[in-house]
Amino acid sequence: MQIGSRIRELRIKMGLTQEDLALAVNTSKQNIHKYENGIITNIPLDKIEGIAQKLAVSPAYLMGWEDKDGASAQPSQMIPILHSISANRPLLAQEQIEDYIYADVKDGGEYFALRVQGDSMDAVSINDGDLLIVRVQQQVKNNDFAVVMVNNNAAVRQYRLEEETVTLLPHSRNPHYQPQTFDINQSRLQIIGKVVKIEKGVKKRPPVLDERIEAMTQGVQEYRDLCEAIAALPAERQKKVIEAALFLVNQEKKNN
Questions:
Q1: Which domain holds residue 249?
Q2: How many domains does the chain have?
Q3: Is 67 domain-assigned?
Q4: What is the pTM (predicted TM-score) of this model?
Q5: Rounded distance, CA 76 to CA 224, Å?
Q6: How high is the mean pLDDT of the chain?
Q7: Within a domain: 98
Q8: Which of 83, 173, 228, 232 has its C-alpha lying 20 to 30 A from 123's C-alpha?
Q9: Does some domain include residue 71?
Q10: How far apart are CA 133 and CA 27, in angstroms?
């Protein structure tokens, strides 16, 4: 469901007219009509926040990144978490896997997660420490939020293409962050993937736990190889392998 459809559905459920919503966010009834029908897709950030507040949901819900109650659907597939990238400014990409997480992705695509640092996207509920679930793809639609590489630097931004000019838009309450514009013919710009969801409250695994797990897998060539092998299994098989591993750990504790 697109953002316009969500706005219309919520507005009708709350018994509001387009004029009511327009007055609440200081815009015109005609603009609300255009938002709801996809005529205007680049809705100004302050309007998204105002509409979300009036309709009693989060901006992230309007963007389609979370359920109405702020929770994601039941996760179904294990995907890798890559090393953090900076949402403050472009950062040299680091694609080494640090961990794995279950995510609700069912379309057969390739996915990974990236952890956000900084506040350059906080106005659209992409906050420091959040995990972004990213679908690997080389093309995105205009105004999608994407992970992009520009001259070997990675960034999370809203992507906008007009003729041969690409604009990467931050969405921050901090005025320090400004849009970046590139000539698509002169810049080494590569789309890594589309941001499809935000996972909140997922903390990094403590280093001590990492060391214990790695110590228990000394018979494997690398801990990362083991994790990748598990991730390649079907979801049900993944669960059985993990349950078996936890059983062995508990048995080892009892024996010690």
A1: 207-255
A2: 3
A3: no
A4: 0.56
A5: 21
A6: 77
A7: yes
A8: 83
A9: no
A10: 33
